[in-house]
Structure formats: structure tokens, C-alpha cells
UniProtKB/TrEMBL annotation:
Designated name of the protein: Opacity protein-like surface antigen
Annotated InterPro entries: OMP/PagP_B-barrel (IPR011250)
Native organism: Granulicella aggregans
């Protein structure tokens, strides 16, 4: 009976967390769009902006930054965890609007676990994840100061969950599973080739018995080069 009540509580908590993830993602995306709309007017009035106009005629671009993501490291764990790591993405632009992209992310963090008979078992467990994805990127509204891009990426993620003992504390076993990232980015130009990027994502993964949704966001630097 106790296990049934715990499972139901975990399921309800997971659904509520999923709704929160959607709300946070939409809020972050809305803030990104609002910032992009405000940037040109502020730059004109404040007389700040890139030294040279961005032409968006580049053939390649590379992005590197720091990344945050929330996650649930076990099917029935009652609480989620926070990942921190790094992200790298490269894009080959087919034309001024559409490009193909490859993305790699490394994440690490600790998660709360279920009680264990082993007294030396830590209450939190280190989890590591490597993510590789590919997909498309679409360049949306753009001007001299900023641009908004949209992307859809799918691939696989390998999670390392195993701890120092064989006791079941609610974690997944080490496994490789499908994952996707769907979101957009705001690029604030600092020069013709260099820009600062803020990128929120909706993460969809299938490490357990169902698809689950999480929120991720990264910030870093983008460099454009090559001529179409």
C-alpha cells in the first residue's frame, strides 16, 4: 500500500512538474522574443550596437556556451534534479533562412535518491549525461542588431546513473535513449561575425517508460564565417 501511494504521488508530482516545465519554457521564449523586439529601439536611442552590420550571408556558424537543464534521474523518484554543463553547436546554412545543425551537450549534477539500507550510501548521487543531436535551424526575424532563430534537434543521450552499491535507490540503470530539443535563440550582434546568444529549449526524452518534458537554457557566444 505504501509503495502504491508513493508511486501515485510520484506520478502526480511528475505531471505537475511537466506543466511547470511548459510554463517556464513559454515564459523564457516569450522573454526572448520581447527582448528581440525591444533591442532595435533601445539601440537606436542609446546609440549602442555592433561595430559593423551583420549581413547574415555566412555559410557556417559555431556556438559554444554554458548550459542548464532540469531532469528526473529515475522513473519514480519524487524530485527532479538540476544539470549544469556545456553546449557546442555547428550550423551549415543552405541559404539565408535554412540550415542543418549538429549539437553536443555534456551535463553533470547530483540527484536526491530513495532511502537505502547501506548507511554509507550518499543521499545524493552524481549523474552524468552526454547528448548528441542533429536537425534543422531556421532564421526568423532579423535586423542590424539581433536575430531570432528556431531549431528542432533529435538524437540520443547516454546517461551514467550507477552508484557505488547494488541497492535500488530509484535511479535508472546506465542507458542510451532518444532525446530531442525544440526551441529558439536570440542572437545579439556585437560585430559582423560575432554575437551573444541566449537559447531556451524544451527537452523531450524517453529514459523511462514514457516521454517526459524538461526545460533547458544556455548562453554563450556565436561566431559566423564563410560566404554563401
Amino acid at each position: 500500500m505504501l509503495r502504491l501511494m508513493t508511486a501515485r504521488a510520484a506520478d502526480a508530482s511528475s505531471r505537475l512538474a511537466g506543466l511547470k516545465v511548459k510554463a517556464v519554457f513559454l515564459a523564457a521564449l516569450g522573454l526572448t522574443l520581447a527582448t528581440a523586439a525591444y533591442a532595435p529601439a533601445y539601440a537606436q536611442n542609446g546609440k549602442i550596437g555592433p561595430a559593423a552590420q551583420a549581413a547574415y550571408d555566412n555559410k557556417y556558424e559555431v556556438y559554444g556556451g554554458i548550459n542548464y537543464m532540469n531532469f528526473q534521474a529515475g522513473q519514480n523518484l519524487p524530485k527532479r534534479m538540476n544539470f549544469a554543463g556545456a553546449e557546442m553547436m555547428g550550423t551549415y546554412w543552405l541559404n539565408s533562412r535554412l540550415g542543418v545543425a549538429g549539437d553536443y551537450r555534456f551535463e553533470g549534477g547530483t540527484t536526491p535518491v530513495l532511502p537505502s539500507p547501506a548507511s554509507f550510501r550518499p543521499s545524493r548521487q552524481l549523474v552524468l549525461m552526454n547528448v548528441g543531436m542533429a536537425g534543422v535551424q531556421y532564421r526568423g526575424p532579423k535586423n542590424h542588431y539581433a536575430a531570432i532563430d528556431y531549431h528542432a534537434l533529435v538524437g540520443v543521450a547516454h546517461g551514467q546513473f550507477n552508484g557505488p552499491t547494488n541497492f535500488d535507490v530509484g535511479l535508472y540503470t546506465d542507458r542510451t535513449k532518444p532525446i530531442g530539443a525544440f526551441g529558439g535563440s536570440l542572437d545579439y550582434n556585437r560585430s559582423r561575425n560575432l554575437a551573444l546568444r541566449l537559447q531556451p529549449d524544451l527537452i523531450v526524452e524517453h529514459f523511462g517508460s514514457e516521454y517526459r518534458e524538461f526545460f533547458a537554457i544556455s548562453a554563450g557566444v556565436i561566431y559566423r564565417f564563410g560566404k554563401q
